[in-house]
Amino acid sequence: GAVVSQHPSWVICKSGTSVKIECRSLDFQATTMFWYRQFPKQSLMLMATSNEGSKATYEQGVEKDKFLINHASLTLSTLTVTSAHPEDSSFYICSVTGGALEFFGPGTRLTVL
Amino acid sequence: GDSVTQMEGPVTLSEEAFLTINCTYTATGYPSLFWYVQYPGEGLQLLLKATKADDKGSNKGFEATYRKETTSFHLEKGSVQVSDSAVYFCAHAGANNLFFGTGTRLTVIP
Question: Residue B100: its chain A contacts at CB < 8 A?
Answer without folding.
Answer: 104
